[in-house]
Amino acid sequence: MEYIALFLIGIFATTVGTLAGGGGFISFPAMLILGMPVHSAIGANKVSNTISSFSSFLHLYKKKELSLKESFWIIPVSLGGGLSGGYIASKISGENMYIVAIILLIFAFITSFKGKGGFTGENPLKMNKFSIPGLYGIGIYDGLFGPGQGTLMFYLFSSLKISYIQAVGLVRLATFSSCFGAAVSYIATGKIIWPLTVCLLLGSLTGAQIGVRIAEKLKPQYVKPVLRIVTFILIVQIVLDHAL
């Protein structure tokens, strides 16, 4: 039953995450509710996101929605951030990590209400003093914890005035890069519970393909209100579950 639950969580969380970011808002709290240790839950997210995010990026790349030449520089920047964040997280105890996770989850939830989506598509993606530090900082956050990372990236790309469908692909590419770096750290430190992680991964692959196809027709503002409601409910559930 636990395996089926993780598969379904992976589908739902990754579908939502592909459309507007914040899939970790769903998968991470749900895994904690199922009883997974904090580090193992984060590690499972990183491993599954590494593969599922690359699959959705590849779909858009094959449809020529993205230029690899224009976006390739995102990989080392996000990878470096993910490695940095994963290393920092591996040095924090399970109990302290739980407290940090709750604080960051609430912070990311509040942050999701900020920013005004533009996605005008008037500018190409460029390396500059705003995009590089922004992506590296979000990569650290993703490696350290994760939920809200995709949403923050959407806000970053919106401010850079690229199109929404490009933003979807670039968020998935950046997520692949930072999650790959973080996943290496979690695997190396033995935090991964592989049977549970594989179930989440299979669900995430399915959700990635569903989400990227919906994204080609759907605007992000239709997804964000639902995401915020679900996030709020899950935050309350985790706090109550930990308090009881």
From TrEMBL:
Record's bilayer topology term: Multi-pass membrane protein
Transmembrane intervals: 71-90, 97-115, 135-157, 169-187, 193-214, 226-243
InterPro entries from the UniProt entry: TM_pro_TauE-like, TSUP/Inactive_protease-like
Keyword annotations: Cell membrane, Membrane, Transmembrane, Transmembrane helix
Entry annotated with the keyword Endoplasmic reticulum: no
Keyword Zinc belongs to the record: no
Subcellular location: Cell membrane; Membrane
Pfam families with a match to the protein in the record: TauE (PF01925)
Origin superkingdom: Bacteria
UniProt-listed PANTHER family: MEMBRANE TRANSPORTER PROTEIN MJ0441-RELATED (PTHR43701), MEMBRANE TRANSPORTER PROTEIN YRKJ-RELATED (PTHR43701:SF13)
Family under the similarity heading: Belongs to the 4-toluene sulfonate uptake permease (TSUP) (TC 2.A.102) family.
Protein name: Probable membrane transporter protein
Species annotation: Lederbergia wuyishanensis
